[in-house]
Amino acid sequence: MNVVRALVIVWLLGVCACSGGGGGAPPAPVPAWEKFRHDGGNSGQGVGSIAGNPGLIKWETQIDTFPISASPAIDVDGTVYVATEGGTLAALAPASGAIDWMIGGTAPVTCPSGTFTLGSLISSPAVYTFSSVTNVMIGSASGAVYVFQVNGTTPTCTARFEPNPADFGNGTIATRFISSPSFTTNTSTLAISGIIIGAAVDITQGGTTRTVGKVYALNTDGTLIWQFPRVGATEIGAVTSSPALGTANESFFTAADGNLYALANDGSLKWRFPIGGVVDSRAPFSASPLTSTLVFVPSASGSISAITPDGAFRWRASSPDGTGFVSSLAVGAQATTTPSLTPTIPPTPTPPPGATATPTPTATPVFPNTTLFGVTTAGSVVLIDATTGLMKMLTGPTSSIAGPVISSPLLSDDSYLVIGSADGKLYAINTLTGEQPSGWPVTLAAGTPIRSSPSIDDNGNVYVGDDRGILYAVGTQ
Fold this sequence. Notes:
Blueprint: H1 3-16, E1 56-62, E2 73-74, E3 80-83, E4 88-92, E5 99-104, E6 109-111, E7 114-116, E8 126-130, E9 133-139, E10 145-151, E11 154-161, E12 172-176, E13 182-185, E14 192-205, E15 208-218, E16 224-228, E17 244-245, E18 251-254, E19 259-263, E20 269-274, E21 290-291, E22 295-298, E23 303-307, E24 313-318, E25 330-332, E26 371-375, E27 381-385, E28 391-393, E29 410-411, E30 416-420, E31 425-430, E32 442-443, E33 455-456, E34 462-465, E35 470-475
Antiparallel strand pairs: 1-35, 2-3, 3-4, 4-5, 6-7, 8-9, 9-10, 10-11, 12-14, 13-14, 14-15, 15-16, 17-18, 18-19, 19-20, 21-22, 22-23, 23-24, 25-26, 26-27, 27-28, 29-30, 30-31, 31-32, 33-34, 34-35
């Protein structure tokens, strides 16, 4: 396990420890990939290595005839959870791809508050198991957040939350939960203490419709802890990004109004910062913030901004190919396939007869262990020094990915980026050389877009869905 990954786990346990008092309880097992972008900080980095992955399709399982655009979640026992735009939620065995259980689709689901059809699931599931109790949390584009408890192969809907129309004044509302949930846990009990998720709400009053945003904190029984903005407060733009958490359970998220917001753990506004890149409130995807030493925010306008946890501007870098970022960032260590990380100077050329050589050293940018990785909409892979904002495109045998790129990259423990493409291929790219290991890229279904963001388990198996509703496992047979 590399140093950056170890720090991510320490950070994650620190976040989970902030909601409760006391101590003495053993830490809960850390899932391989518990939610969209892996952890509360949206790091996008997993434990598994790609070097031993031969790029073989281990299995493929048809979940639905509707696309899978959500990212799979992987529990502590390796079970893979995935959702489809057709409203199906499924759990699969990691070794065979056999479906342990499947709910939703056209079949209604019974919850304590009634019986409902799940509706389109673009939000990625989040999963947490402790004391043999597994909670699976997900938002629906049809306007509700669901919590399921799993006992063996039997999922039970234990909670459903739906926004209260009265909170938006007179009129009707239609809510879309595109944002994927994050969650916090209590130090003493290790139970989930809060589910954090963003929403886009269409409000129709007097024949006119406007779209606003909300962020909700919920208990696992579906009751409301807090909402932002508070009832009657100034409205914000739609929230389709997935919140990132800070070390004191702060929530950081972007809205369609072009701002980055920071909330305290009680849901009060700490600050907001304009990052630009106002997005269409109807867009099904938008890039999510990432928290590390700073808060890093990619935007649809083509910039990446770094903001301090107290809201001060640090740096801003622009996309080298002029296109924006719909996929989210990953953070970690760049590959080190060369023995030196010091700047290099090209050798001095031999001057022609009669001329005098004047060498002009050109230093090669050197990226530290904490590097940001992103993919532009057009498919350019970029590396950004997280401290300075220095950005460069990754060149080499794989200089770009077929766009438009929606899939967010995962960073493996051995510093490969794994990215889904619009041409149906899954790439694994060395973050120093741009090269791919033998067997990669993997063609899942030629011409079928991969918008799902891949996940990786502890053994280096990669899971991703495609627009035909098929979930794939790529790894060792």
